[in-house]
């Protein structure tokens, strides 16, 4: 785990995630909530301080500080057991205090953020500074007291603040100064409502805490994983669940937008959408660990979203299945540590990424294998997806990494086309699907032959990033997992070793592809980026599947040490600055961890040799 870091602005990994499975907030170590989009993950942020300063919206509760002095970072924090309730604690000269932060899962009520201040020892002077700035930090609210409550209203949005403590207002900021003694509790609740609607009921903070705690404890009870690093797997799965949108079954890639892949750089993207690829991988991790209901909801989401028209497949959608997410720059936000532009929306929506049908089909097949009941419509959808592959697989595409440098014949995309055909062949053989087996086998074999001929560099004994290219690509680490060739085939082992050699200079942290030297700008973007956390877990899996289990276990432990003190991982990691980078927490990274843990545990059991000491 990373040590407790203190800096003027919080590091990415300094944030805790809280959420209600419709949206999420980030709580920094100084007690500030500096990211929250209401009412949904992809709504405009009400607190956008993460991508700017406090003046772009934040809500801090913590020990009082003199005006202008930096807010003190907490001395300790943790999730309360296996829940999404975070406890942040400060020791001060006069006593100790704890703040509990959480968002109750919505049971027909308004979205709520609840903060309970508990006196632990002595007496502590506290402050609450609530500064809502709707529209990603742009709009000042009209703040007023009504019926003993405080409302902050702007355009369509209204926030309602309830607390027993008297407050003041200045410059569209609500201030509370109060004292908490050992054993005392002071609650603050914030509810969102459309501004035209009547005021929502004030939440009962203690009841909400009890319900939220039991929701997460009951959810975790269904986890079937019983291998090593149980706590890391549990935290990963809780995080993945927090990224699912309960009403629709959609899953966001991450709850944030524009956290940079390079500090000060331009690689800043909005991840608050449902990528079919990321969602399929998230579902696979959940299903493997006993979570079936989420797979059923996601299957319905797929059918609603494109079941009637799979030939017009997009690679991503909004949570409710809408197809539009125009990319735009928010010029008024300075960006995380100056990383501009801040973008919302995502232009990659119009890309052709031919790996996607294979990923969706594979996850649906996995769900079936784990006991999700058959569904005729889904079976029809799978057949239409394989038709899509048949029609498009010969085309160049934009690839798994969504490069913006032009289409190529990416090897990973072709291999995933093979996966699509292969998994459907198996489902037909099992009698689950009814289709022309001969045609499917011929499609599968044709793709296989072409990839082996055009994507394999015999002189270096490695598959390459694209047909005829010399570059390598971390997505090739998935080769042993796909079954495209036997894991012990020399071409597979050669590829795993070549990728590790060229893309993981330290042998641990894997880059997606090279962005330096002659490769600058090849992906259509200036600058570089960190190591990609998911690819590093893929290396663990690839080593394990190619017979190097002990080495894989060692690498896995090294990767676990990159997690934040709360067990969270962003999309990327900067090996030089030793900091997390990119959107946070990222489903890809959390699911990579869970999948590697399960694989290592299964292989270790099969080898019947004790796990090496951590
Ligand atoms: O690197 C350029 C691209 O980066 C983003 O894509 C990445 O995030 C996606 C969501 O997690 C993931 O599916 C993809 O594999 C990643 O490369 C960004 O969303 C793109 O707009 C951008 O072109």
Automatic annotation (TrEMBL):
<keyword id="KW-0119">Carbohydrate metabolism</keyword>
<dbReference type="GO" id="GO:0004555">
    <property type="term" value="F:alpha,alpha-trehalase activity"/>
</dbReference>
<keyword id="KW-0378">Hydrolase</keyword>
<dbReference type="Pfam" id="PF00723">
    <property type="entry name" value="Glyco_hydro_15"/>
</dbReference>
<protein>
    <recommendedName>
        <fullName>Trehalase</fullName>
        <ecNumber>3.2.1.28</ecNumber>
    </recommendedName>
</protein>
<feature type="domain" description="Trehalase-like N-terminal">
    <location>
        <begin position="10"/>
        <end position="138"/>
    </location>
</feature>
<comment type="pathway">
    <text>Glycan degradation; trehalose degradation; D-glucose from alpha,alpha-trehalose: step 1/1.</text>
</comment>
<feature type="domain" description="GH15-like">
    <location>
        <begin position="227"/>
        <end position="592"/>
    </location>
</feature>
<dbReference type="InterPro" id="IPR008928">
    <property type="entry name" value="6-hairpin_glycosidase_sf"/>
</dbReference>
<keyword id="KW-0326">Glycosidase</keyword>
<dbReference type="InterPro" id="IPR045582">
    <property type="entry name" value="Trehalase-like_N"/>
</dbReference>
<dbReference type="InterPro" id="IPR011613">
    <property type="entry name" value="GH15-like"/>
</dbReference>
<comment type="similarity">
    <text>Belongs to the glycosyl hydrolase 15 family.</text>
</comment>
<dbReference type="Pfam" id="PF19291">
    <property type="entry name" value="TREH_N"/>
</dbReference>
<dbReference type="GO" id="GO:0005993">
    <property type="term" value="P:trehalose catabolic process"/>
</dbReference>
<dbReference type="InterPro" id="IPR012341">
    <property type="entry name" value="6hp_glycosidase-like_sf"/>
</dbReference>
């Amino acid at each position: 785990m990373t040590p407790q870091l203190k800096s003027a602005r919080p590091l990415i990994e300094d944030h805790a995630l809280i959420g209600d499975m419709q949206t999420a907030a980030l709580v920094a170590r100084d007690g500030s909530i500096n990211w929250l989009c209401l009412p949904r993950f992809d709504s405009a942020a009400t607190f956008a301080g993460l991508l700017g300063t406090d003046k772009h919206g934040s809500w801090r509760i913590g020990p009082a500080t003199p005006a202008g002095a930096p807010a003190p970072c907490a001395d300790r924090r943790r999730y309360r057991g296996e829940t999404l309730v975070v406890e942040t604690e400060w020791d001060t000269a006069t006593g100790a205090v704890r703040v509990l932060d959480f968002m109750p899962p919505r049971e027909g009520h308004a979205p709520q953020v609840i903060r309970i201040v508990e006196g632990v020892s002595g007496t502590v002077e506290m402050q609450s500074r609530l500064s809502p700035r709707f529209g990603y930090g742009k709009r000042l609210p009209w703040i007023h007291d009504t019926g003993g409550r405080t409302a902050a209203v702007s355009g369509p949005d209204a926030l309602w603040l309830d607390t027993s403590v008297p407050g003041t207002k200045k410059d569209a900021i609500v201030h509370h100064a109060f004292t908490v003694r050992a054993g005392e509790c002071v609650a603050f609740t914030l509810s969102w409502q459309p501004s035209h609607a009547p005021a929502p009921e004030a939440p009962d903070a203690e009841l909400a805490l009890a319900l939220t705690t039991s929701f997460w404890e009951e959810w975790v009870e269904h986890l079937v994983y019983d291998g090593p690093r149980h706590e890391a797997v549990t935290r990963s799965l809780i995080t993945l669940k927090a990224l699912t949108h309960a009403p629709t079954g959609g899953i966001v890639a991450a709850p944030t937008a524009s956290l940079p892949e390079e500090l000060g750089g331009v690689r800043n993207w909005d991840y608050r959408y449902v990528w079919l690829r990321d969602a399929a991988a998230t579902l696979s991790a959940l299903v493997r660990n006993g979570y079936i209901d989420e797979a059923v909801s996601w299957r319905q989401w797929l059918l609603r979203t494109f079941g009637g028209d799979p030939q017009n497949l997009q690679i991503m959608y909004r949570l409710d299945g809408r197809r539009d997410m125009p990319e735009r720059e928010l010029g008024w936000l300075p960006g995380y540590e100056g990383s501009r532009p801040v973008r919302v929306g995502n232009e990659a929506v119009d890309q052709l990424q031919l790996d996607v049908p294979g990923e969706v089909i594979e996850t649906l097949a996995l769900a079936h294998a784990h006991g999700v009941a058959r569904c005729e419509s889904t079976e029809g959808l799978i057949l239409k997806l394989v038709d899509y592959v048949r029609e498009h697989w010969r085309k160049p595409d934009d690839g798994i990494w969504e490069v913006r440098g032009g289409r190529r014949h990416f090897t990973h995309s072709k291999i995933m086309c093979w996966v699509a055909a292969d998994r459907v062949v198996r489902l037909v053989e099992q009698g689950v699907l009814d289709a022309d087996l001969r045609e499917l086998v011929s499609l599968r074999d044709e793709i296989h032959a072409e990839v082996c001929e055009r994507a394999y560099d015999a002189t270096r004994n490695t598959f390459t990033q694209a047909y005829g290219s010399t570059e390598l690509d971390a997505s090739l680490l998935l080769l042993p997992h796909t079954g495209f060739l036997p894991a012990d085939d020399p071409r597979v082992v050669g590829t795993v070793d070549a990728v590790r050699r060229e893309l993981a200079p330290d042998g641990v942290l894997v880059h997606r592809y090279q962005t330096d030297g002659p490769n600058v700008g090849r992906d259509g973007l200036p600058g570089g980026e960190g190591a990609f956390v998911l690819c590093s877990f893929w290396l663990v899996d690839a080593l394990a599947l190619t017979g190097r289990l002990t080495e894989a276990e060692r690498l896995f432990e090294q990767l676990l040490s990159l997690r934040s003190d709360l067990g969270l991982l962003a999309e990327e990691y900067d090996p030089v600055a030793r900091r997390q980078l990119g959107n946070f927490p990222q489903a890809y990274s959390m699911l990579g961890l869970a999948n590697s843990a399960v694989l290592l545990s299964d292989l270790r059991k099969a080898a019947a040799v004790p796990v090496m000491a951590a």
